[in-house]
Amino acid sequence: MISILIPTYNYSVFKLVENLQQQCAKLTMVYEILVIDDASSNTNISAENKKINTLPNCNFLGLKENIGRSKIRNLLAEKAKYGWLLFLDADTFPSSSEFIKNYIASFSEERSVIFGGIKYPNNNLKSESLRHTYGVERESLPLKDRLKHPYRSFITMAFAIKKEVFNLIQFNEKLAGYGYEDSVFAFELKENNISIFHIDNPVLHLNLESNLDFLKKSELALQNLLNFYEKSTINANSVKILKVYLQLKNANLLWSMRLFFKVFKTAMLKNLNSTKPSLFLFDLYRLGYLSTLTPPNA
After folding, report:
1. How far from the centroid of its chain's Cα atoms is residue 286's Cα?
2. In the CATH hierarchy, which fold is given to the domain comprising 2-117+155-207?
3. Residue 262, C-beta contacts closer than 8 angstroms, at least 6 positions apart
4. Largest alpha-carbon pair distance within the chain?
5. Per residue in 255-282, pLDDT tens?
6. The whole model's pTM is what?
């Protein structure tokens, strides 16, 4: 028995739900698919999503007020009927017609959290080159690589978890802003000695931000990262860039990164908005930006 949970905001998920429902129906299993809309402003998309209620064992609910990324996921889990929860982001899609079957086959008493991985479709758009390159090289990891760092390679875009375990962890509603929620959730799992079981059963991530939007989101995420660290909701070893930043800070070398960022920011942005962005430069850009969030005398 499984509850498939999908939060959405200004994004049509009808085709996603239709595909999942067809997969579940073929397995003659007990299931439900719950979708909650976080007060979307696009009425056409909301009307499309309301058709979800015409599908067997599927339910769509629209909220009148926006409650945010964490609260809506916790609300979905609260409303779920069954013991296994499968969280999927709205802009994902099964990469296989046996996606649900593969997850069901991995469920067992010994396992509490299961992550199947992420893939990216071919994308040649210059305007989305940075997000696509980052996704392919940093997120779309083969199973053998994810197994080396099971917590660091965990992404909440698509994962299954026992409801009783989720009720112990949940998404932290006190954390505002965008970014590194995956790392915080994985940190909580690790702190509570809850292992993550990795399988080869990815979703496709479909909706990519433009280069400029991804850079802006990355900057917001870094602000969030420092906030998480200061509140002790994450540790330095959970995120590589945080570990390097703290090493520079402890060595009184953040000034050098600030200077580097000031001198080379324009050149780095030119590369990051090209057809072949360098993730090495992206890391330097983020580290430089992160250094500017600390007072010059720190």
Report:
1. 19
2. Spore Coat Polysaccharide Biosynthesis Protein SpsA; Chain A (3.90.550)
3. none
4. 64
5. 999 999 999 999 999 999 999 999 999 9
6. 0.91
